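B., you asked whether I could sanity-check this one before it goes into the benchmark set. Here's the sequence:
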Amino acid sequence: MPRLSDSMEEGTVVRWLKRDGDEVARGEELVEIETDKATMAYESDTAGTLRITAQEGATLPVGAKIAVIGDDDSELSEAAASAEVEVPEPAAPPADSGEPAPTASTPTRGSSDARVKASPIARRIAGDTGVDLDSLSGSGPGGRIVKADVEGASTAAPSSTSGDEASGRGTVTSTEPTRTQTLIARRMAESRATVPSFTVQISVDMTTATTLRAELKASTSEGQAVPTINDMVVKASALALREQPQANGAWRDGHFEHYSRVNIGVAVAGPGTLVVPTVFDADAKTLAEISAETGELAERVRAGTITPPQTSGGTFTVSNLGMFGVRSFEAVINTPQAAILAVGAVEQRPAVHEGGIEPRMLMELTLACDHRILYGADGAKLLARIKALLEAPLSLAS
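And here's what the prediction gave me:
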């Protein structure tokens, strides 16, 4: 199982692009693998005969063997040993021992499942999800039921139970999350549980920025991209991080890490998931370049064609819910990054301007910081600098 992203710990074999026994060439696409960030095709790094040891749907840690290319029987045997194996039934004692035969550990469901040829992990998942092994056809060696068979059945037919009358919930339907959703849940829970975070918030007067954007839109030819408010936030964040490198870092394994490149992750909602593609060297790119790149990355996320390299290497994250009318919110830090910026809606509200009250276009920014690497003053200075840049939008044109 290759490591396809910096945060990848395990991967799922989605689809083999070659069949068992096929001859493959170096550089030829071999298998599609789902990571915690995306699904991508992995190219073979050698040539030879393919012997598959991990079936489609199998989830294995990075470094575990999923196939062997070549004719080395010893290597093939070693790979096969790492695949799902069936636990043999314990042997019966001698007839004259006078002791009863030991009872094999049985699944949590009916005894009929004990006679079904299935791997231990398949039995465990079936017990947890209520899938009847007798109803499945195995895709493993010799017709054995493997993990992918059970997961496919539990996804296709979600379990339903009727709510009790006291709760008044009616019918309760339980569905299994996708692997990506499971990983997102785990990472967010880990962030909340392990990162001592605090937030600082500030209001930004976006009147000049929105006026400038309207003028750009009016003077731009049809079909040409116009930088969005979020593109301006990405650019302003990148420039501020370049000036305050402490925030462009992380707390990892008990020490500080500081990065020479400013790579801004932009949270994008995809079908049933949340993906954070990266704008590399955002501090060195023009606003137009950032606009074109974020637009392309967002399209790739929604089309499901984003690749792990495009979601790796981020040093800071921007999350925007302003398009949904959300005024402000607190985002969860994308560990091990030092901070994440939550962007609210640009709204016309009464504000004090040049000694009087008048309608202004205001936006709330909320910065969540890891207190191990950023202190209150650090976060406040960073947020104030982002505000200053956004309120003087011509400074973002360089």
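One thing to flag: The longest strand covers residues 339-353. Otherwise nothing jumped out at me.
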